[in-house]
Amino acid sequence: MLTVEHLTAGYDGVPVLRDLCCGFAQEFCVVLGQNGSGKTTLFRAVSGTLRPMGGQVLFDGEELPRLPARQRARRVAQVLTTHQTLSGLTGMDIARMAFYAVDGLFYRPCEKQEQRIRQLAKKLDAASLPDRLLEEMSAGERQLAELLAALCQDTPLLLLDEPTASLDFNRTHELLIKAKRLAEHKTVIATLHDPALALRYADRIYLLQDGRLVAEFAPASTDVRQIEAYLRMLYPRIRVIRWEGGLSVDYQTEQEKRTEK
């Protein structure tokens, strides 16, 4: 269980998150919010790369930001939206770095661990990824390489910052299906920009606006009208639609919105 208690965090003394309180259980959680709402800042505070200005971030009772880096690496792994393409490194090299984070820079993964890296790559439908150079990969493939490294850390908490941003249609849905399966035995939190994807795959959705939590709900057990009311706090022209496969969304034009009124 990840618990965020009265978290205030930001940059150069200016808060982005303000008195944020929320909890994340062992399920697939999605955080939605417009640009600048504080999604990435939340992840940085949780992972310990950004020191909170106030409040606490607790994982199973331990204050994550105060733990030494190697202890944090045993509890939380993250995949960021920004990628550094380091010349000469392969997907295998990036995956090995996960072991360095946990066991130290001088640790060398054994043959069994490298076999595990290849097995995880196959599960991501990217079996060739460990042998390819990063500079030869597309942005989406580099995203998968970093996800591979995060999975190698084998942590109980996994943070995915806009994991579908560079992926094509097929890869997007395949990744979210895998994220939902991972949440069967760990806490997985992703930030997304697409509410339709969140409604389809998330066990629980959190809405951030101006650094504050404005709503939290489970799509499977919340009335469609209530979901639409929540989402309209962020997306005023959204319309939630129920169909055979679950929930989806549509965008209302100004004329449609006037007709609805």
How does this model look, in words?
This protein is an alpha/beta fold. The chain has two domains: 1-75 and 155-236, 3-Layer(aba) Sandwich (Rossmann fold); 85-154, no CATH class. Helices cover 35% and strands 28% of the residues. Strands 6-7-8-3-9-10 form a six-stranded mixed β-sheet, sandwiched between helices. Helix 3 (91-103) packs parallel to helix 5 and helix 4 (111-123) packs across helix 5 (139-153). It starts with a strand and ends with a helix. The mean pLDDT is 89.
Distance between the termini: 42 Å
Main sheet summary: 6 strands, mixed
Q: Return the domain count.
A: 2
- Strand content range: 25-35%
Number of strands: 12
- What is the radius of gyration computed over CA atoms, rounded to a whole number of angstroms? 19 Å
**Class derived from helix and strand content:** alpha/beta
- Residue share in helices? 25-40%
CATH class of the largest domain: Alpha Beta
What's the architecture of the largest domain, going by CATH? 3-Layer(aba) Sandwich
**Shape type:** globular
What do we call the CATH homologous superfamily of the largest domain?
P-loop containing nucleotide triphosphate hydrolases
Largest sheet strand order: 6-7-8-3-9-10
What's the short story on this structure?
This protein has two domains: 1-75 and 155-236, 3-Layer(aba) Sandwich (Rossmann fold), CATH 3.40.50.300; 85-154, no CATH class. The protein has helices spanning 39-47, 69-73, 91-103, 111-123, 139-153, 169-182, 195-201, 224-231, 254-260, and strands at 2-11, 14-24, 28-33, 54-59, 62-63, 76-79, 157-161, 187-192, 204-209, 212-217, 238-243, 246-251. 35% of the residues lie in helices and 28% in strands.
